[in-house]
Automatic annotation (TrEMBL):
<dbReference type="Pfam" id="PF05523">
    <property type="entry name" value="FdtA"/>
</dbReference>
<dbReference type="InterPro" id="IPR011051">
    <property type="entry name" value="RmlC_Cupin_sf"/>
</dbReference>
<feature type="domain" description="Sugar 3,4-ketoisomerase QdtA cupin">
    <location>
        <begin position="4"/>
        <end position="129"/>
    </location>
</feature>
<dbReference type="InterPro" id="IPR014710">
    <property type="entry name" value="RmlC-like_jellyroll"/>
</dbReference>
<protein>
    <submittedName>
        <fullName>dTDP-4-dehydrorhamnose 3,5-epimerase-like enzyme</fullName>
    </submittedName>
</protein>
<dbReference type="InterPro" id="IPR008894">
    <property type="entry name" value="QdtA_cupin_dom"/>
</dbReference>
Length: 133
C-alpha cells in the first residue's frame, strides 16, 4: 500500500570539492537489475501512468525537480523530488505519474527487474480491478 512508499536518504560524502552520493549494499531494498533515466523532458510532459506487478523502483531527481503522484487505489499522494541524495521507493502495485519537470531535470530510476511490458499495468481501470480481485 501507499504506506510502503518511502523516501530513502542516500549516503553522501561532502568536502570542499562538492558532494558524492553512494548507492551500495542495503541502501535500497532490492537488487538493482536495471537503471534508466529521463532527460530533456518538456515541462508540460506527463510520464509514468502505470503500475507494476513485479517491479519495485527507486526514483531519484538527479538534477532539478519533478513531482510524483502515487496512488494505491485508495489513497493518493503527491511528492516533490528535488534532492539528488533522496530516492522515492515505490513497491509493486502502486500507480505512479510524474509531471512538473523543471528545466534540465534528470529522473533516474533504479529498477528491480529487467524491462518486461507484460508486468506493466497501463490502464487505470485495470489497476483498480486488479486490486479488487
Ligand atoms: P514508458 O513506460 O512510456 O515511460 P515512462 O514510464 O517514463 O513514461 O516507456 C517509453 C518507451 O520506452 C516504451 O515504448 C517502452 C520503452 N522502454 C524500454 O524499452 N525499456 C525500458 O526499460 C523502459 C522503462 C521503457
Amino acid at each position: 500500500t501507499i504506506n510502503d512508499v518511502k523516501i530513502i536518504d542516500i549516503p553522501k560524502v561532502h568536502d570542499e570539492r562538492g558532494f558524492l552520493a553512494v548507492i551500495e549494499k542495503d541502501a535500497i531494498p532490492f537488487a538493482i537489475k536495471r537503471v534508466y533515466y529521463l532527460y530533456d523532458v518538456p515541462s508540460d510532459s506527463f510520464r509514468g501512468g502505470h503500475a507494476h506487478k513485479e517491479q519495485e523502483s527507486v526514483i531519484i531527481a538527479l538534477s532539478g525537480s519533478f513531482e510524483v503522484l502515487i496512488d494505491d487505489g485508495k489513497t493518493k499522494r503527491r511528492i516533490m523530488l528535488n534532492k539528488p541524495n533522496q530516492g522515492l521507493y515505490i513497491p509493486t502495485d502502486i500507480w505512479r505519474e510524474i509531471d512538473n519537470f523543471s528545466s534540465g531535470s534528470v529522473c533516474l530510476v533504479l529498477a528491480s527487474t529487467e524491462y518486461d511490458e507484460v508486468e506493466y499495468i497501463r490502464d487505470y481501470d485495470d489497476f483498480k480491478n486488479q486490486l479488487l480481485g
